[in-house]
Amino acid sequence: MTLLFVTPLRLIDQDHLVQQARFRPLIRRLLERYQALEQHYGNAEIAFSKEERDTIARLADGVRCVSDNTCWQELRSYSNRQKRTTLTSGLMGEATFEGDLEPFLELLALDELIHVGKNVVKGNGWYQIQS
């Protein structure tokens, strides 16, 4: 499966900035984003349990990036609230992943619409499933 990162994707994994295409941090953040939106705007009773999130994240370890055609884009935007520029940098480009992707298809398709990572409110974290 190839994902095209249309706008900068900025992820943090284990307190470190992710600067290469990696599947596990993407899936972990997708789960967190879905969970937060479901709890605030949806039906919290159908949200993933901690055990389900951990299982899905563990399965993501079996998926590897076989082609990373992403690059890091250094970008900034101005925050009226903070009265200063803020980083909106992130990965852009294409990455192809291989492995058992079946458990992630629904989540990836859903999050293609809601975006993922830092600065989603500014339009970042938009990706498209290519194949």
TrEMBL record:
Superkingdom to which the source organism belongs: Bacteria
Pfam families on file: CRISPR_Cas6
Occurrences of domain CRISPR-associated protein Cas6 C-terminal (ranges): 4-127
**InterPro entries, per the entry:** CRISPR-assoc_Cas6_C
- What protein name applies here? CRISPR-associated protein Cas6 C-terminal domain-containing protein
